[in-house]
Specification:
six-stranded parallel sheet, about 45% helix, 3 domains, six-stranded mixed sheet, Rossmann fold, alpha/beta, 12 strands, about 325 residues, 12 helices, elongated, 434 Repressor (Amino-terminal Domain)
Amino acid sequence: MTVTIYDVAREAGVSMATVSRVVNNNPNVKPQTRKKVYEAIERLGYRPNAVARGLASKKTTTVGVVIPDIANAIFAEVARGIEDIANMYHYNIILCNSDKRKEKEIRVINTLLEKQVDGLLFMGGAVTDDHLQAFSSSNVPIVLCATTDEKGTMPSVDIDHEGAAYDAVSRLISEGHRRIGMISGTLQDPANGFARYQGYKRALETAGIAFDERYVRIGNYKYESGMEAAQYFLELEERPTAIFAATDEMAIGAIHAIQDAGLSVPGDVSVIGVDNIRMASMVRPQLTTVAQPMYDIGAVSMRLLTKLMKKESVEQAKVVLPHELIVRRSVASV
């Protein structure tokens, strides 16, 4: 039979109110009494009913997290940052995978809100009117994590994606490259796609290099699309001397396609990516890339959410963390 708070109170010889205070870490309990209650809890195997406690306090100490792809090392690192800070502030996490599909994102958001989470962290693609409508139907705080809305009205933690792309392409230009291909993400994605594409174009414009549509291919952030895009570039009459990929996974795909064609990286084609996933330092040649502080993005997002949930003052609701160019061996001068 289920052990109840009444059973613990009877076993410990105290009132149910005292057991409740002990379970909820109320400081107004004598150490000796607290010890007696804990011993009774251990003997009986009592577990507090989180649902009942949530109904009573109107708090579930649970945070919902919408993540695009838990199998992706980038998002796994963000999730680790979120969980470490959540544990520090005694929150539990409900993690939901959305596959970066809008209809699934909306469904998952609504499901988490129905479960009475105290707050929500959202990682995804474009924040559409449908997303905003789902968010507005809730009275709990919501923070965009590694995601931003175009209007900049929601609390968010991210990097400057356009600036990251600009720095990567500028590095290639500084090495003498003029024909620079880009493997972009979908331009409907405002951060990893469109913003990085804009950074690529701005770097070319700053250097006085004409933009050429032949040197842009749209990928899906995955290894295979990086290979396919690089194969296309290699078939051009004037192939690029360098390739900028919007993600490391696509950059690694490009490296392997170039090598499969009997060419050298960076001897024949230089390659640079964004993200600094673990594989970037394992591939040969090691990949030059722009590092995102993914763990920090998760940790700062969760800390911002805890402040909002506790109604603490927030100096900056839109946080932009710094990125860093990591120079390795996949880029050479021409």
